[in-house]
Known about the structure:
This protein is an alpha/beta fold. It contains 13 helices and nine strands. The strands form two sheets. The protein has a six-stranded parallel beta sheet, sandwiched between helices. Helix 5 links the parallel strand 5 (about 90) and strand 6. Helix 4 (about 70-80) packs parallel to helix 5 (about 95-110) and helix 8 crosses helix 11 (about 240-255). The termini are far apart. Nicotinamide-adenine-dinucleotide (NAD) binds near residues 9, 10 and 31. Nicotinamide-adenine-dinucleotide (NAD) binds near residues 9, 13, 14, 65 and 71.
Amino acid sequence: MIHDIAFVGLGNMGGPMAAHLAAAGYRVTGYDLAATARARAAARGVAVAGSAAEAVEGADLVLTMLPAGPHVLDAYRELTTAAARGALFADCSTIAVADARAAADLARAAGHRAVDAPVSGGVAGAEAAGLTFMVGADDADFAAVQPVLAAMGRRIVHCGASGAGQAAKICNNMILGVSMVAVSEAFVLGERLGLSHQALFDVASAASGQCWALTSNCPVPGPVPTSPANRDYAAGFAAALMAKDLGLAADAANATAVPAELGRRAAELFADFARGENAGLDFSAIIHALRKEPA
Ligand code: NAD
């Protein structure tokens, strides 16, 4: 049974996730390099340590929610020597499958256990404890981590062995990135053909063009009042994060010699779009680039 949790990386996602664990009765000790993140977490019931190494002392579970693969590997190099032998390491960041497997290898080499558990659902999902977790783990480690993840999420899917959670995450987001480009291109073409946004939505949302990018995150204002397009594309899911995830998918396609032509093209489009001031816009704002107008 897990009681003591170290939570490293208390940012937009990690902050609310750690707060839910504390509210669920776990003893949560957190750490973040940023003082503002530490202060916000402390205000939400997380005990804050003086360093990441101090946070993991005595922890049964070491959770990380960090920006990218190099941060996770650096943290694992330090924390696997600081944690008590046999601790369970669970990384929830979105990182390359190869980095997830390397992180798990580092943990196991130091006598620990390891799972990858990336999430979807964004900051709103983290705040509402409504995340989906995609878990790469053996059966025993999945059983151990599952109740903890359930305090932060609604769906916990065991995807396979180490790395399988990250694989599921980047495959899902490749579908999402490509489908957002397809939906946006269809709206732009419809505009040029004199079709109203609402008419195209009414047809496609009830026909074979139906998908989440259309019916939940519609890239034009109007048909779906809650979509980011209705609030000047305030994220939502930031274009920079979509560019990052599609980059990871393209790297994985290279490593496995998969053509993934649309996934690679979507990666290029989002990488170009998310440079500079568009980075923080919702990824559905890509429609402006596809119309070739400023966002
Ligand atoms: P964030 O930048 O808000 O938070 C990351 C935190 O890690 C920052 O507060 C930073 O100070 C801290 N940090 C960096 N290196 C550290 C270290 N060595 N020790 C301690 N703290 C350190 O990012 P986020 O939005 O919370 O995203 C975290 C991860 O979740 C990323 O991998 C991202 O791709 C993934 N993710 C984000 C979303 C989203 O909508 N924001 C959705 C799904 C997945």
